[in-house]
């Protein structure tokens, strides 16, 4: 990274485009609501902090909701409106708003992952509990199917059309057709512990992060294996860019971008976006409409990067505690981040701010 970029990390746009607040507990996840009117942060204390977009610069108006008895490892936008779905170590799936908490289901194991998809008349909720993934209707209370896996599910993701659901687990991943009646997934095998999953926006590939400081991928047209290695630490966060040309990842002191065009990523080196020398990138998020990505680092700093020009815009300074949650709303107008010591921030990215 250039000296200019390194120095610029000491000031950030949150000062004039947003606000920060500190809450109790490690921030485990964050996301915008389906209608983008609200943003939520989940904590290891069982609370959900919800901010209305109109109150983005007024952190004293952000609402703290006691959603679970214990940590909230899973958070997703609800299938409609401004509510959120949470999964807790109390084994509950809940629908949460600023003024209510509705328990939708109680499972036998912790709910560690929740994903949702909505389009047209179709609304689907998926939640992972132990080796199982439950597929539910949009009401959350109606169980449609239970997808069984050979080991504990470590990540889930819907494809862009909501037709398929990917689940990572030990020795590979399973790819399910959500509406299929035969109950059999496509098995994508690779020995080792797979700890997270992402699907290419065009459905061309599935990629998992691994315990062994590398990524593994499968080209879905023919099952061809793709191995992406060389990281100094585990890849805790990965996200495809809006058109699927690049896969952005954490795990190094820069943002690593793997090319998914021109035959890549096999046989092609990754691009390295600017970072903070000697400080690991811990979270990445990609912008839904522009050629931008956002990266959070182990010292608490957040940078916005144009991955074509490699220009860097600091979002916030670091306070010494790692960024553990990072998300951009689906309309690209709101950025949220959270750290392991409970610092949360919201930034207005819209052009009229």
TrEMBL record:
It comes from the Bacteria. Keywords: Repeat, WD repeat. It holds the Pfam family WD40. InterPro entries: Quinoprotein_ADH-like_sf, WD40/YVTN_repeat-like_dom_sf, WD40_rpt, WD_repeat_multifunction. Gene3D superfamilies: YVTN repeat-like/Quinoprotein amine dehydrogenase. PANTHER family: ANGIO-ASSOCIATED MIGRATORY CELL PROTEIN (PTHR19857:SF8), MITOCHONDRIAL DIVISION PROTEIN 1-RELATED (PTHR19857). This is Anaphase-promoting complex subunit 4 WD40 domain-containing protein. It comes from Acetobacter oeni. The lineage of its organism: Bacteria, Pseudomonadati, Pseudomonadota, Alphaproteobacteria, Acetobacterales.
């Amino acid at each position: 990274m250039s000296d200019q970029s390194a120095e610029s990390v000491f000031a950030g746009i949150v000062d004039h485009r947003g606000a920060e607040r500190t809450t109790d507990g490690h921030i485990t996840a964050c996301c915008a609501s389906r209608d983008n009117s609200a943003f939520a942060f989940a904590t290891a204390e069982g609370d959900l902090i919800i901010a209305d977009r109109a109150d983005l610069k007024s952190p004293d108006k952000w609402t703290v909701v006691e959603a679970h008895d214990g940590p909230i490892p899973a958070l997703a936008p609800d299938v409609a409106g401004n509510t959120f779905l949470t999964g807790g170590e109390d084994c509950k799936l809940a629908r949460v708003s600023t003024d209510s908490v509705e328990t939708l289901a109680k499972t036998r194991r912790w709910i560690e992952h929740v994903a949702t998809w909505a389009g047209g008349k179709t609304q689907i909720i998926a939640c992972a509990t132990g080796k199982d993934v439950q597929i539910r209707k949009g009401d959350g209370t109606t169980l449609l199917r239970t997808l069984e896996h050979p080991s504990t599910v470590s990540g889930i993701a819907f494809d862009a059309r909501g037709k398929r659901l990917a689940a990572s687990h030990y020795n590979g991943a399973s790819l399910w057709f959500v509406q299929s009646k035969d109950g059999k997934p496509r098995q994508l095998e690779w020995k080792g512990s797979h700890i997270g999953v992402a699907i290419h926006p065009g459905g061309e590939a599935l990629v998992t992060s691994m315990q062994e400081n590398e990524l593994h991928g499968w080209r879905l047209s023919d099952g061809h294996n793709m191995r992406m290695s060389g990281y100094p630490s585990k890849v805790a966060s990965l996200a495809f860019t809006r058109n699927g040309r690049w896969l952005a990842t954490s795990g190094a002191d820069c943002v690593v971008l793997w090319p998914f065009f021109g035959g890549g990523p096999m046989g092609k080196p990754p691009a390295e976006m600017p970072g903070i020398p000697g400080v690991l990138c811990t979270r990445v998020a990609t912008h839904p409409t522009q050629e931008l990505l956002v990266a959070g680092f182990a010292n608490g700093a957040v940078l916005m990067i144009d991955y074509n020009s490699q220009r860097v815009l600091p979002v916030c300074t670091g306070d010494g505690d790692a960024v553990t949650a990072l998300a951009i709303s689906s309309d690209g107008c709101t950025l949220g981040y959270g750290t392991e010591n409970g610092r949360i921030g919201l930034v207005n990215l819209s052009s009229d701010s």
